[in-house]
């Protein structure tokens, strides 16, 4: 890519897209296109084709998606499969139709089977059943990566799919019902600390900016405590000084292992791939690593290769924030996949290394959240 190339970042306002846009700007790219959902509905095929015909992007990074944690994935199954299929079908097809030189499609490591061997290698795709709670989202993402591969094989396009691990960072979704595990934990534990210290000013400010259902900072104390309790921030006792003893409830047993990557590192990896790798490079590396595989996919994992339990993550966030209450795990709720860590051999062989530890990434994210 040239620094003046026309680059369209679909989903430029989200966690992933905003991080990629920042990374491109830092590296000197000056002609970056972004459209909000109000400006361009990516589920509207005619509107997407009109955008591509008018703006003529040379490169496309497809980071737009409907995303969420285990609760949202399980509750809004139809929305997740429909919206994600529509978005990626329209953008990928238009990229081919209007001659885009290179496209990067962002999926998720939830594409891998529930009981796949660990760490997750690209060759494990479609080897057994998916985790049921996020099956619709995973199927949509598998369709997207296979769409890229199919267009490459039939039309000789250069469409690369990447499967990032669990991401966190500035611009994350902190909705208590729909967010991923790390931002949900961070917000719940921080609100728990505010109840411990009696900081109702911050609690009301927080709910005004990010309401929970129809509960905002203008709601009564009783209504706020009830909605927080329903979302796992449970007040056990009110003290004479107006503070509370608090427990934060987390879904599952706390034993599943997860890998987390700071969004800036993921963004840098995506830009690195756009600058330095083509589909043929990824296929060639797979052949070198496993010459007897026979069929080679046109995607690769993006991650750190490091993991920790949800229990350890909860304790780390509690210590970081200064929350003194209890962390209670609810084993009646699903754990999801018990272990999910990526094999990043191909990414390393391409020459990329991530920069942030979980500690440094969490500090930046928390500071940004408080702002």
Coarse structural class: alpha/beta
Helix content: 40-55%
For the largest beta-sheet, the strand count, sense and barrel status come to:
6 strands, parallel
Across the major sheet, the strand order is 2-1-3-4-5-11
**Count of individual helical segments:** 13
Query: On the 0-100 scale, what is the average pLDDT?
Result: 94
Strand tally is: 14
Rounded to an integer in angstroms, the radius of gyration calculated over CA atoms is: 21 Å
**Intertermini distance:** 35 Å
List the helices and strands and how they pair.
Elements lengths: L6 E4 L4 H12 L5 E2 L11 H11 L3 E4 L7 H6 L1 H21 L4 E5 L28 H21 L3 E6 L1 E3 L12 H17 L2 H10 L11 H10 L2 E6 L5 E8 L5 E2 L1 E3 H14 L2 H11 L9 E4 L5 E2 H12 L4 E5 L8 E2 L4 H6 L7 H13 L1
Parallel strand pairs: 1-2, 1-3, 3-4, 4-5, 5-11, 6-10, 8-13, 9-14
Antiparallel strand pairs: 7-8, 9-12
Helix pairs in contact: 1-9, 2-4, 4-5, 6-11
């Amino acid at each position: 890519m040239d620094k003046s190339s026309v680059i369209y970042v679909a989903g430029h306002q989200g966690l992933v897209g905003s991080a990629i846009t920042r990374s491109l700007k830092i590296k000197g790219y000056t002609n970056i296109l972004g459209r909000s959902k109000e400006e361009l509905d990516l589920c509207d095929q005619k509107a997407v084709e009109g955008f591509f015909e008018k703006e003529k992007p040379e490169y496309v990074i497809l980071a737009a998606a409907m995303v969420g944690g285990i609760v949202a994935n399980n509750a809004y199954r139809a929305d997740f499969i429909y919206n994600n299929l529509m978005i990626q079908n329209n953008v990928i097809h238009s990229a081919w139709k209007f001659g885009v030189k290179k496209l990067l499609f962002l999926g998720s490591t939830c594409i891998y089977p529930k009981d796949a061997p660990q760490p997750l290698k690209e060759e494990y795709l479609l080897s057994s059943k998916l985790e049921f709670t996020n099956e619709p989202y995973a199927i949509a993402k598998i369709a997207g990566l296979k769409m890229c591969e199919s267009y490459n094989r039939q039309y000789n396009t250069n469409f690369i799919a990447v499967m990032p691990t669990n991401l966190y960072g500035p611009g994350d979704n902190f909705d208590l019902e729909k967010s991923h595990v790390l931002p949900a934990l961070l917000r719940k534990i921080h609100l728990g600390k505010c109840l411990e210290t009696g900081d109702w000013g911050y609690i009301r400010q927080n709910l005004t900016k990010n309401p929970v259902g129809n509960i905002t900072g203008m709601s009564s104390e009783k209504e706020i405590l009830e909605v927080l309790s329903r979302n796992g921030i449970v007040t056990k006792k009110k003290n004479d000084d107006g503070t509370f003893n608090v427990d934060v409830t987390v879904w599952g047993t706390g034993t599943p292992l997860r890998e987390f990557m700071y969004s800036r590192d993921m963004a840098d990896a995506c830009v690195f791939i756009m600058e330095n790798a083509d589909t043929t490079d990824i296929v060639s590396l797979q052949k070198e690593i496993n010459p007897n595989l026979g069929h080679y996919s046109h995607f690769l994992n993006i991650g750190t290769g490091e993991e920790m339990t949800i229990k350890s993550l909860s304790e780390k966030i509690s210590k970081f924030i200064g929350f003194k209450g209890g962390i209670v795990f609810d084993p009646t709720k699903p754990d999801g996949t018990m272990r999910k860590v990526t094999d990043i051999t191909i990414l390393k062989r391409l020459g990329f290394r991530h920069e942030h530890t979980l500690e440094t990434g969490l500090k930046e994210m928390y500071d940004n959240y408080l702002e």
